[in-house]
Design goal:
Radius of gyration of chain B: 14 Å
Number of helices of chain B: 0
Structural class of chain B: mainly beta
Largest sheet of chain B: 7 strands, mixed
Oligomer: heterodimer
Number of helices of chain A: 0
Largest interface: A-B, 23 and 27 residues
Shape of chain B: globular
Shape of chain A: globular
Number of strands of chain B: 11
Radius of gyration of chain A: 13 Å
Chain lengths: 112, 117
């Protein structure tokens, strides 16, 4: 079983839709969870960061972590064409980012 | 504030040629990383450094060497390029845990597209 599993998509939705992106993981030691957004031909940039279980909201974005189920989600409300990108989950335990494990990314297209 | 800058942005190499990719960061980060990104494979860590003068192997280190002579620079070398090294290479940097924040967010450069023919 891979440490982090992420559905690669692609996912195509109409503008204004609610988008749900998900990752599952197997390592119980993971303590912090991130979502990166990567536009085409650009480097990944941090979108959301969550430590341990719970929800975190930032504008139209909500990150959820369920450590009991080893499942994390990113919700995008009122999706916009500018949200079209690849979304990568990343997670890690104690230590620096060298211990981050990335999902393979989900490609999202929001159609006007 | 430029963040993380990678040089060059594009390169085509012939099999067996060598080259060096340069990464520079101006955020005073202790940690620096080199990743490769391939379709269907996601981001894979090649080598990383936890401080000036230190380097360590990541998940896929074979065929690559690195050096961190200055805190702000991290070089990735390919001594004898192979077609399997065709990829997009990303450099990233982050604080040491506890240096400035518990958040070990990695800041990425814009990538180098390398094709080996």
């Amino acid at each position: 079983q891979k440490e982090v599993e992420q559905d690669p998509g692609p996912l195509s939705v109409p503008e204004g839709a609610i988008v749900s992106l998900n990752c599952t993981y197997s390592n119980s030691a993971f303590q912090y969870f991130m979502w990166y957004r990567q536009y085409s031909r650009k480097g990944p940039e941090l979108l959301m960061y969550t430590y341990s279980s719970g929800n975190k909201e930032d504008g139209r974005f909500t990150a959820q972590v369920d450590k009991s189920s080893k499942y994390i989600s990113l919700f995008i409300r009122d999706s916009q064409p500018s949200d079209s990108a690849t979304y990568l989950c990343a997670m890690g335990g104690r230590g620096g980012s060298e211990k981050l494990v990335f999902g393979k990314g989900t490609k999202l297209t929001v159609n006007p | 504030n430029a963040g993380v800058t990678q040089t060059p942005k594009f390169r085509v190499l012939k099999t067996g040629q060598s080259m060096t990719l340069l990464c520079a960061q101006d955020m005073n980060h202790e940690y620096m990383y080199w990743y490769r990104q391939d379709p269907g494979m996601g981001l894979r860590l090649i080598h990383y450094s936890v401080g000036e003068g230190t380097t360590a192997k990541g998940e896929v280190p074979d065929g690559y060497n690195v050096s961190r002579l200055k805190k702000q620079n991290f070089l990735l070398g390919l001594e004898s390029a192979a077609p399997s090294q065709t990829s997009v290479y990303f450099c990233a940097s982050s604080y040491r845990p506890g240096q400035a924040t518990l958040n070990t967010e990695a800041f990425f450069g814009q990538g180098t597209r390398l094709t080996v023919v």
